[in-house]
DNA sequence: TATTTAATGTCGACG
DNA sequence: CGTCGACGTTAAATA
């Protein structure tokens, strides 16, 4: 990993064209050839960058300034960095990173709700996780107290897309005689957070919304495991 | 902007929980308080980070190691960085960045198609850009050779969401007597690239698909401007 | 390898 | 300030 602080200007050409006027920035050159150009603000996204796999050629422009040409290996994306003045330039050997361990993403939410379907609606029991249909898997297929089928779509953040997705599943499921024998399939849209528009659309389509409390679910799960 | 290279471990708690085992990494501390933790690989996304607005408190852990506690201002997200050894530590004043200038995004695509609607379908003429409806603006409202209304939805990459969006517009527009007087409103889904699933769904709903060649359109536009 | 889906998405525009 | 849609989305899982 090489870190350079320099007054520079940058031009990108690829899926779009973009330009950065002359200013002082931080350039990170990773060992896989990728380059990040960071300013002292914004979020974690660099102002401009080149993703690996790519190569960097260091050269000199016509006017004598240092010029770095970064080229993507697979596409014809290019990044040109013209350097006026280098303020800092160091390299460090970081080795290979062991990587990030995550907990609390949608998959975990689905696992916990599969264990505790009754938190979505009284008397709900699990039939199957990842119930396959022609257009993809329904997160949870359940049965309610009256024995009717209930399709559950789980999102961390419930937005309009999720409601559309569940609607497509319900349209399809309600044509399946095996499921509709005892009546139509209901839908439940479950998420840690549900956006107003999504809630309106769901309600309009007769789909119930359920807010999920991840910490509470995890607590229930822990309490259960302590019994063994 | 402060740049630190250090052997460290990191714990994040917020919308999820995550952990980084002990390893050598680059820590970027931006002047707005935000922190990025980069390894020597991956793409531009850091292994872990805290977005502004946030504050960093430098302290000492029980075992004597340096400990940085980063707290988000608005949420209760926290990032804890435990430092075993500092290999590098420098600060630089970068000033305010003039920012990135972009060209070639969806807005430009819409401008070009508004100039040349006939590239979407023979005889198509523009009625209005950003035609407002109760659920949002239709990108292009056109009229075909027979004088019938055509709604155009433009995407850079055509996916299933875009088809759903256009479908909602068409449902609404076909209830509008002013437009349906002469017949029903057709839809055209235009994009530089159309995913197979999106194409299937569009076709199933009687929506035409049109692939857009940005460079060709820009060429037509340039040729036109040269006449003046 | 190609495609589909989730994401601590981020970012900008608009009401 | 919140909502919504685009993004050089990126990145991971899956077919």
TrEMBL record, chains A, B:
GO MF assignments: endonuclease activity
Compartment list: Cytoplasm
Chief location bin: cytoplasm
Enzyme class: hydrolase
Entry function: Cleaves both 3' and 5' ssDNA extremities of branched DNA structures.
Family recorded in the similarity comment: Belongs to the NucS endonuclease family.
This protein's name: Endonuclease NucS
Organism of this sequence: Nocardioides renjunii
Name of the encoding gene: nucS
